Amino acid sequence: MNNLKNLNFISKIKHIFIFMLLLILYTLLCASSYAETVSSGISDSVFRLHVIANSDSEEDQALKFKVRDSLINYMSEISKNVDSKEEIIKLVNEHKNEFYNIAINTIKDNGYDYDVNINVGNFSFPTKVYGDISLPSGYYDALRVEIGEAKGQNWWCVMFPPLCFVDVSSGIVPDSSKENMKENLSDEEYSLISDNSNEVKFKFKILEMFENVKIFTAQKNKD
Fold first, then answer.
1. Inter-CA distances, 37 with 141, 148, 162, Å
2. Cα(71)–Cα(59) distance, rounded to whole angstroms?
């Protein structure tokens, strides 16, 4: 009789264990699916600028910001009537030579002879805060500008929707820029990057976790 009870107890434990395991797997699957959907939605709507300094020396870092300013000034002039990510990518590709010349001339004007490598592609980015807007880590299409050996610290911003062209030092992104982002994102995606409630922060952390794993795995595979 005791043996039968023990067998029943063990059977119940096994069933509970299997149920808990399936529940965990289902939760992870749902979280992964959510992260993939939202991350794709955000990255598909954003185009970024990525400038990498020659080194971390004070002079090279100062030069990086001068190159950045020159590129942003030019971009702000030619992108005034751009309404979509596709348009901004087309515009950047059409003007790659101009971006190159602007970067090279800025470098020469400041007394350096570094070369510049310019690419339009899909690159990994860490989480970045622009005032009260936060973009999760992940892969984003971007204009990448590498100065010299490109071994210094990075600088990046969002070219579309246009956050490169606003002053976020106050910690607040202007309503016009937020409205632009809102028009290019779903309600869930926009809430994720702009809402600071505990529930949204938790979702943001989930998204960040899965994207960081994806980036780490991709980098491992490259190595």
1. 17, 37, 23
2. 19
Q: Residue 165, exposed/middle/buried by CB under 10 A (0-12, 13-18, 19+)?
A: middle
Torsions phi, psi of 196, nearest 5?
A: -105, 15
Domain locations in the chain as residue ranges: 40-222
What global pTM score does this model have? 0.74
Residues composing the chain: 223
Cα(54)–Cα(114) distance, integer angstroms: 8
CB contact set of 222 (below 8 Å; sequence gap of 6+): none
- 3-state SS, one letter per residue, for 104-129: HHHHHHCCCCCCEEEEEEEEEECCEE
Tokens 């106050």 locate to 170
Each residue's pLDDT tens digit, 182-220: 877 778 788 877 777 766 676 767 767 766 666 666 666
Q: Please name the amino acid found at residue 50.
A: H
Helix (H) / strand (E) element for 56: namely none
Residue 86 dihedral angles phi and psi, to the nearest 5°: -60, -40
